[in-house]
Design goal:
Elements: E1 14-15, E2 43-44, E3 47-48, E4 58-59, E5 70-72, E6 79-80, E7 84-87, E8 90-94, E9 100-103, H1 106-117, H2 121-124, E10 129-130, E11 133-139, H3 146-154, E12 161-167, H4 174-180, E13 187-190, H5 196-205, E14 211-214, E15 220-221, H6 225-235, E16 242-252, E17 255-259, E18 281-283, H7 284-290, H8 301-308, E19 314-326, H9 337-351, H10 360-369, H11 374-389
Parallel strand pairs: 11-12, 11-14, 12-13, 16-19
Antiparallel strand pairs: 1-6, 2-3, 3-4, 5-13, 7-8, 7-10, 8-9, 14-18, 15-19, 16-17, 16-18
Helix pairs in contact: 10-11
């Protein structure tokens, strides 16, 4: 086992605030939370200074909300994570564009070097940066599976992972699970939202990573997926605006169904509807250049966003399983087919395109149907009939 396997996602915590900012419970005082300014880290009034043309501002904390139920995580204690770049044999904290700002503290320098020393010699020679990757989980009343999801993130062996959870105001014990991992989750908040894409946007605006990964509250990241991506980035000339995706393992009926899907050309994004989103790793620069998800979509907002930023995307496929996804959620439930088709019509009209559901979606559903019971197969047949008649 490589020594880097001992590393976890909280290895590179950086305490950027002194004790005067903290209350007796060790959390940032409420009156100071939105007034943090650290010029050398490009932080002004608790906002990260980005480019003037960015579509949104990156925040250290979500704005005050009278409906907020709770908020917490390592950030509320002054502990943050950043991307790092090697300059003159020293690791430097980077801004949102990857520009080095200041040398990292000594203990972080040592931890980064220890991690790199544990990698293969072929990797060591090309490592000049250690990007922060932000995992965002949106949840509402997901207590049944959330703890497994959290563990799948925390067990990643890549050391520079930021984990953000946005809860929609759960009442089923979800908050108890989140609080159980209070010292491992970077930032979490519980408050009502306007749907899944509104919640995902909240996660994006507080994300400090170079890349974002969206993980459903009942999905699991495959072991070492992020580390595999890191190695790939080191050995490939991937553009800053990359959308990196792999394969999915569907979990249904107590069985696991491996599913591989690869687009041959980027233009297929305007024709197909089944590119894996959960677990994919997407450049933050794509969002800052192309904007956030549109809240008018309640089910297909991720695909609508891909269509919107299509011209900017550098699409990258890796033949590696990225996550395990339980079927039965809103976007893959046969009962929601009418809503999906209605939203597709809106998107097609807005972008003057035509999405092809008849072939790839039938193949995908046929695969799943082979593992289902009689009643579930009837639902899939209904799906197919609706898509053919569309």
């Amino acid at each position: 086992m490589e020594s880097s396997e001992r590393f976890n996602t909280n290895t590179l915590l950086y305490k950027i605030l002194d004790i005067t900012y903290l209350d007796e419970a060790g959390k940032i005082k409420e009156e100071l939370k939105h007034n943090i300014s650290i010029p050398e880290l490009k932080i002004q009034n608790s906002k990260i200074i980005g480019k003037p043309e960015d579509k949104f501002e990156t925040l250290l904390f979500l704005p005050p909300n009278p409906q907020r139920i709770a908020e917490g995580g390592l950030r509320t204690k002054g502990l943050f994570k950043f991307s790092y770049k090697l300059v003159d044999n020293q690791w430097h904290v980077c801004d949102l564009e990857g520009n080095p700002l200041i040398p990292a503290p000594k203990e972080i320098q040592e931890k980064i070097n220890e991690y790199i020393n544990g990698l293969k010699d072929s990797d060591k020679q090309v490592i000049t940066q250690l990007p922060l990757i932000t995992v965002i989980t949106v949840v509402y009343n997901g207590a049944k599976h959330l703890e497994e999801t959290i563990k799948s993130v925390l067990n990643q062996t890549y050391p520079n992972v930021e984990y953000i959870i946005i809860d929609g105001g759960s009442t089923d014990g979800t908050l108890d699970i989140i609080k159980k991992y209070e010292d491992k989750i970077d930032y979490w908040v519980s408050e009502p939202d306007e749907g899944i894409y509104d919640a995902m946007n909240k996660g994006i605006v507080v994300a400090l990573g170079d890349f974002y990964t969206f993980l459903g509250s009942d999905d699991l990241l495959v072991n070492n997926w992020i580390k595999e991506i890191f190695r790939f980035l080191l050995s490939s000339s991937v553009a800053n605006k990359a959308y990196i995706y792999g394969n999915i393992i569907f979990q249904v009926g107590g069985k696991e169904i491996p599913y591989r899907y690869r687009l041959v050309k980027k233009n297929e994004l305007l024709k197909e509807f089944v590119i894996p989103h959960s677990g994919s790793i997407i450049s933050a620069k794509l969002f800052r250049s192309g904007g956030l998800y549109e809240k008018k979509y309640k089910i297909i907002g991720d695909h609508a966003w891909v269509v919107k930023v299509h011209d900017l995307i550098h699409l990258v496929y890796i033949d590696f399983f990225q996550c395990k996804m339980k079927l039965g959620g809103t976007s893959n439930n046969p009962k929601t087919v009418k809503k999906i088709l209605d939203e597709l019509k809106i998107m097609e009209k807005e972008h003057s395109i035509r999405i092809n559901l008849s072939f790839k979606l039938k193949k995908y559903l046929a695969l799943i149907a082979s593992y289902l019971g009689f009643y579930e197969k009837l639902q899939v047949v209904w799906w197919l009939m609706r898509t053919i008649r569309r």
